[in-house]
């Protein structure tokens, strides 16, 4: 492994700062900034929540007059537009920064190179791509949605060694252990929406919200994901637990006045692809699918899954238990293949993270 350059070391510090906002910044991206002068950090910060100052502002405030002639390391191209906060690119210019190192360019049409242009026109030296791959992980959904119009989709499944998710009766609590179930809370917390089907709601009366995170003392600081229920026949019970927070629920199905009175957002029945585009319009850039075999298979077969997160419990449920997926293939050429990107032991279970191979979708 090659030794890290000093620029990479400072940028990794900025990435670490950006991670502190991973549960609270939505729909804004996670951004960290470190200001360095004469080989020392003089200011740093991260973006904590939408509507609050951006990372560059906190770093500039902390550095004070030491920003003159300093170098700023920013994980995402500084914004160039007036929104709920003023443009950070101009703030860096006014602070007298002489050099800016950017990890990722911002594909947002409101930025898209304009931030870098503002800096360069002011005579600031700009370099891009420092630790780009590592910084991009922070904002996979935001970057994908801005570039393609579709959110980043993670599909989560939990199964036995023989690929079963529930007994024939539907009994499924619990196949995986408490550590794996706790681990799922992280994936929900970084998602703008959790998608499920009505069969899962009817069978489990699930909440699908974020209830506990190991590094978060006050769960109210977490931006809760929307819960999206696909209910084409309008069967969602009004006493379902998921409706305890109706303002965070979206239902794709026939219009129901009783849901409207609760404040539930109702979406027209549409294809899964169109649904994802609709969610992007709601500034939902990361989606977690937690559903049964039919809906999970549909997302996979339609090529809509960016990442599969599979928890495997060391147990056997038998051939009469329900399968993880129910896709039917007649030929080997139809198989869906994946690239394994990570294997982790979580409690007594194993977590696999995989990405679909392009030729299989």
Draw up the topology in text:
Elements: H1 6-19, E1 32-37, E2 40-46, H2 55-63, E3 71-76, H3 88-94, E4 99-104, H4 114-121, E5 125-128, H5 132-138, H6 140-148, E6 152-159, E7 164-166, H7 178-189, E8 193-197, H8 198-204, E9 226-230, E10 249-252, H9 257-262, E11 265-267, H10 272-281, E12 286-289, H11 293-301, E13 307-312, E14 322-323, E15 338-346, E16 349-356
Parallel strand pairs: 3-4, 4-5, 6-12, 6-13, 8-9, 8-12, 9-10, 10-11
Antiparallel strand pairs: 1-2, 1-3, 7-14, 13-16, 15-16
Helix pairs in contact: 3-4
Describe the model:
It is built from eleven helices and 16 strands. With 361 residues, the chain is of the alpha/beta class. The strands form three sheets. A nine-stranded mixed beta sheet has the order 11-10-9-8-12-6-13-16-15, with helices on both faces. Strands 2-1-3-4-5 form a five-stranded mixed beta sheet, sandwiched between helices. Strands 7-14 form a two-stranded antiparallel sheet. The two termini are 34 Å apart.
